[in-house]
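Format notes (please read before filing issues)

Several people have asked whether sequences and structure tokens are stored in separate files. They are not. Every record keeps both together, in the order shown below: the sequence lines, then the token lines. Line labels are part of the format and must not be stripped during preprocessing.
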Amino acid sequence: MSFTDYRINHLRFVLFKPETWERYAPPFVGLNNYVRIVTNDLAIQNYDFWRLLLFNVTWTVVNLAFHVGLGVLIALVLNNKELIGKRIYRALFVLPWAIPGYITALTWRNMYDYRFGAFNLLLSELNSFLGTNLPTDTRWLEMTTPPVGGPLAFLPMAFYAVLLANVWLGWPFMMVVATGALQSIPEELYEAASIDGASGWQKLWTITVPLIRPAMVPAIMLGTIMTFNQFNVIYFISEGGPFGRTEILITQAFKLVYEQRLYGVAAAFSIVVFFVLLIITLLQNRVTRATEAYYA
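Then the structure lines:
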């Protein structure tokens, strides 16, 4: 299909029914769909493949940094033997990850509503309580002016809005993995390190990090794929806006099918996404092997 100009008028084409071939067969276009995708030769508003790819990679890297950092940090805190109520905390912290993603996304979208959303209402309450003059009608998902300049100027306010939602959604998974890895570390190693006079930081970098790494690497690889293709958060919160500035590859592929009805282009686009993920996975494997050699 990716090598044809398959559109809505070709839906009656059936490969195993020769009587449909002459009338409904989509024309063969070879690699033209792929060329149109990467050269931005699609009659789609605000479409730019390389901007999409840059945003998608940035989105994945920033989210993973927060997911892993928060997940491991909170797992370390919950692994403290002196902490009371650890089981309750763990059960509560898993809830964001356990709730269906589209429900979470729709909830966050309502929180960002500029008229009745929780964030603007909170700012209004702060103004009343502290006597400040904070803006209470911010259109979090519609602002085109970037809140941060420099190399991050291509990221609109909506990026930070969906980032906050996805960080809240994703870090519990890393916490669960890190918790399991931490509980498998023998306590004798820490006791021996204490006898040798090791500090807390030394124990962290010489014992904890190397021993949780075998569990965290597969989780990070899985998290990379899940975040790269995080359809629910992007589509249900920002819908790729404003003006396509928070669009990712998977939401663009979805719109090619259900909005533009360009089925041939969408098939080619999906294959392009597959190869992008393949390259990312191969790079991750290479980095993993390099770090394994370092720790060995």
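For reference, the curators noted about this record: Residues 52-87+142-248 form a domain with the MetI-like fold fold (CATH 1.10.3720.10). The chain has twelve helices and no strands.
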